[in-house]
Design brief:
- By secondary structure, the chain is an alpha/beta fold.
- The chain has two domains: 128 residues, D-Maltodextrin-Binding Protein, domain 2; 91 residues, Periplasmic binding protein-like II (D-Maltodextrin-Binding Protein, domain 2), CATH 3.40.190.
- A five-stranded mixed β-sheet has the order 2-1-3-10-4, with helices on both faces.
- Helix 2 crosses helix 8.
- The longest helix has 15 residues.
- The chain is elongated, with a radius of gyration of 20 Å.
- It starts with a helix and ends in a 7-residue tail after the last helix.
Length: 237
């Protein structure tokens, strides 16, 4: 009986567990942690997550950073990696949603007036897709940066921190971050910014890495799609 139990345990686990390193845009970190945990439990492979702004991670990959999979917050950076021969495969895993959180009620109609004399946090649009979306929404809301104080940080994760620590009256964040924030008021900004298509890149250096290939398949599985949808993202067809 003891021998049988040992054999069953061996069958249940991969004979040799592998490792995969995944670089994640900050907006998706919490969801990526859930996906990675389920993946590790099911496969026995180990996942290491690194996170930052999409632009920062892209630059690190160009410089030779040892990532296997890149979960971007846009479609452009994975496309560029593919054109440069650094990505072997690309796929859309989520469609992001931008929201405006505030300490007092605000509507689209009165936003310009509500921002006067206040502080608003957003991600740097040159490196963070959610920051770029925020600038588009600000233009549609007719917000004038001369009338309020913008606080520009590296990524949308830091935006959430600025708001949570009381250093901003308003903040442009991902809808997926809302469960982690004590935001009294949330304004949906759908229609005020271009679609936030979040693509993943399977990096060429990971070709032949069984753990990386398994994670790539897992990312697009029904289980992962359910987690992504529940986290506040829209799902690609």
């Amino acid at each position: 009986m003891r021998i049988l139990v040992v054999l069953l345990l061996l069958i249940a686990r991969p004979l040799s567990a592998g490792e995969v390193t995944v670089a994640v845009a900050s907006n998706f970190l919490t969801t990526a942690e859930e996906i990675a945990a389920r993946f590790e439990e099911a496969t026995g492979h180990d996942v290491t997550l690194a996170h930052g702004s999409t632009g920062q991670i892209y630059s690190q990959i160009e410089a030779g950073a040892p990532f296997d999979v890149f979960l971007s917050a846009d479609a452009r950076r994975p496309e560029l990696l593919g054109e440069a021969g650094l990505a072997a495969d690309i796929g859309t895993y989520a469609l992001g949603r931008l929201v405006l959180i505030s300490r007092e009620p605000v509507t689209r109609a009165d936003a310009a007036e509500a921002f006067v004399g206040r502080t608003a946090a957003l991600a740097d649009p040159t490196v963070a897709p959610y920051g770029l979306a925020a600038t588009a929404a600000m233009e549609r809301l007719r917000l004038d940066t001369a009338t309020f104080r913008p606080v520009l940080v590296a990524n949308v994760g830091q935006v959430a921190t600025v708001f949570a620590t009381g250093n901003a009256d308003f903040a442009f964040v991902s809808a997926a971050q809302l469960p982690l924030l004590d935001a009294p008021h949330v304004l949906d900004l759908v229609g005020l910014y271009p679609p936030i298509t979040q693509d993943a890149a399977f990096l060429a250096r990971a070709t032949g890495n069984e753990a990386a290939m398994a994670f790539w398949d897992w990312l697009f599985s029904d289980d992962s799609r359910a987690l992504i949808g529940a986290a506040g993202y829209d799902l690609p067809e």
